[in-house]
Amino acid sequence: MTFRFKFSRRGPVRYLGHLDMMRYFQKVVMKAEVRAKYSEGFHPHQLMSFAYPLGVGMETDGDYMDLEMEDGNDPDEVMKALNSVMNEGVYISAVTVLREGAQNAMAAVTAATYELILECDDPIEGRLIIEKAVEEMLASDTIMADSKKSSKNIRPGIFELMVEPNADEQGIRLYMFLSSGSKLNVRPADLFNTLLTMPSVASAGSSFKMSLLRRLEIFGMTEDGKHVPLINPDVL
């Protein structure tokens, strides 16, 4: 059977790369002495996979790991055992047992939500500028985002984009609900860079800097076409 764990990653551990996090969890599983399944052959390894690689430096409250377990394991007891040996900054908040035939976490991803905090000299005035830029962006049918290899229209993949009502001492908070996965993957950094090219920002002369990017949740699709968190047992 396969357990799906939802975990958060905050603080210095956000600077670990994807492969480093995989090695970290492999060691955690061994240290917790839970009965995970291993591959066969000369170099057996845990049957483990992750939902969607996180960019280095990005925090997350909603990341996912699938781990194949021997029969007879209790999900809550395994989660408790893993959390007991975790380093500070990594915490498993939920676990579910996948139904037979469910996709692995990476294949199931369809969307993700993010919180982005922007810094500028005047957060109050800056929030008004960013609000206007968001309006301009959402009013457009085509938003071209440039990456290293190509340029693509990301507008169909912006499900929700809003500025939080109040700017505080941390800066301007931007909420994003974006398409993720193999069909259309909208990176929050690409959206942010494109947002800065909107007329209201370009003409304002203000300087904006991304101070924090946090992934809040990862979603999959249900049979009736709804986006739900990957921990939901109805995810295809």
Describe this structure in words.
- The protein is α+β, with helices and mostly antiparallel strands.
- It folds into 2 domains: 2-108, 2-Layer Sandwich (Alpha-Beta Plaits), CATH 3.30.70.580; 111-229, Pseudouridine synthase (2-Layer Sandwich).
- Helices cover 24% and strands 31% of the residues.
- The protein contains 6 helices and 11 strands.
- The protein has helices at 18-32, 75-84, 105-108, 123-138, 188-195, 199-202; strands spanning 2-9, 48-50, 59-68, 90-97, 111-119, 144-146, 151-153, 158-163, 172-179, 209-221, 227-229.
- Strands 1, 2, 3, 4, 5, 8, 9, 10 and 11 form a 9-stranded mixed β-sheet that branches. The protein has a two-stranded antiparallel ribbon with strand order 6-7.
- Helix 1 (18-32) crosses helix 2.
- The longest helix is centred in the middle third of the chain and has 16 residues, at 123-138.
- It is elongated, with a radius of gyration of 20 Å.
- It starts with a strand and ends in a 7-residue tail after the last strand.
- The model has no long low-confidence stretch (mean pLDDT 90).
